[in-house]
Write a structure and sequence with these properties.
By secondary structure, the chain is of the alpha+beta class. It has helices at about 10, 15-20, 105-115, 115-140, 145-160, 170-175, 180-190, 210-215, 215-225; strands at about 25-30, 35, 45-60, 65-70, 90-105, 165, 195-200, 200-205. Strands 1, 2, 3, 4 and 5 form a five-stranded antiparallel beta sheet that branches. One of its GO terms (molecular function) is DNA binding.
Length: about 230
C-alpha cells in the first residue's frame, strides 16, 4: 500500500503496521446517518474514513443528542475504546456520506497492544481527539449559535476538502444543540452577508476568509490540532 493512503492515520503509520491492519479490512460506502457504533457498547469495527464526515454525539438518557466532535480522513472511529474497558456514552454516525476502510475492532485492539509504532500513533490521535472534544464542549457553552455554526462549517470543509456541504437545518440544530429556528436565523444572516449560499439540504461556502473572521477562536484551535497530527 502506498504511503499516500487517503486516510491520514493509515498514511502516517509504518508500512508494516499498515499492511497488518489492512489484512482484515474491507472498503465500505457509508450513507448519511449510518450508525458506526452505539453509546455504551464496544464497536464491532473501526472505520478509517477516506471521505465524508462522522459525528460523535453525546446522548442523554432521554434521547437528546449534541455533537461533541467529528471524525474525518484524519483518523478513525471508536479510538477511546482501545485504551480502557469502560464503554463510552457517545454515539457515532455518519453526518456527511462517504467511504471508509472497515477493520474488525478486535484485530485493531490486538495490533494496538502488540505494535509499538501503531500504539504511539493511536495515543497521539486519542490525545488530540480528547483536546478537540473538550474544546467543542466549551464552545457549546460559551459561544452563540452563529459562531458555532461557522466553526462547524469551516471544520467540515477542512476535513472533507469540499466547499459544498449536504446537511439540513434540522440536523444542524441537533448537532449544535439549539433550535431549528435559531439555526435558520444564523444561516440566513451568513447568506445575506454572502458568506454562504444555502438551499434546502445544501450549504455552499462562498467566502471562506470572511467566514473565518466570523468564527469563534475555537475553530482555529481545532484546526491547529487537526493539522498538527502525525508531524
Amino acid at each position: 500500500m502506498a504511503k499516500s493512503h487517503p486516510n491520514r492515520f493509515l498514511a502516517a503509520i509504518s508500512q508494516k503496521s499498515r499492511k497488518h491492519l489492512l489484512s482484515t479490512s474491507s472498503e465500505v460506502e457509508l450513507g448519511t446517518k449510518t450508525v458506526l457504533h452505539e453509546s455504551q457498547t464496544r464497536p464491532s469495527h473501526a472505520f478509517f474514513l477516506t471521505s465524508g464526515l462522522a459525528s460523535i454525539l453525546a446522548v442523554t438518557t432521554v434521547g437528546f443528542a449534541s455533537e461533541v466532535g467529528v471524525v474525518g480522513r484524519e483518523g478513525f472511529t471508536g479510538s477511546l475504546h482501545l485504551i480502557g474497558p469502560v464503554d463510552t456514552p457517545t454515539h457515532c454516525r455518519m453526518q456527511l456520506a462517504g467511504a471508509a476502510v472497515q477493520i474488525p475492532f478486535e484485530h485493531l485492539q490486538k495490533a494496538f497492544d502488540q505494535d509499538d509504532d501503531l500504539h504511539r500513533h493511536i495515543l497521539e490521535f486519542v490525545q488530540v481527539h480528547m483536546h478537540i472534544l473538550s474544546q467543542v464542549a466549551g464552545c457549546h457553552s460559551i459561544h452563540g449559535a452563529s459562531q458555532r455554526l461557522t466553526r462547524w462549517l469551516l471544520t467540515a470543509q477542512d476535513l472533507t476538502e469540499s466547499s459544498t456541504i449536504d446537511i439540513t437545518q434540522e440536523v444542524l440544530s441537533e448537532i449544535l444543540g439549539t433550535k431549528r429556528v435559531t439555526i435558520a436565523a444564523a444561516a440566513g444572516s451568513l447568506q445575506r452577508d454572502r458568506l454562504i449560499e444555502y438551499r434546502r439540504g445544501h450549504i455552499h461556502i462562498l467566502n471562506r476568509k470572511a467566514l473565518e473572521a466570523a468564527a469563534c477562536d475555537c475553530y482555529s484551535t481545532v484546526k491547529d490540532l487537526h493539522e498538527g497530527l502525525y508531524l
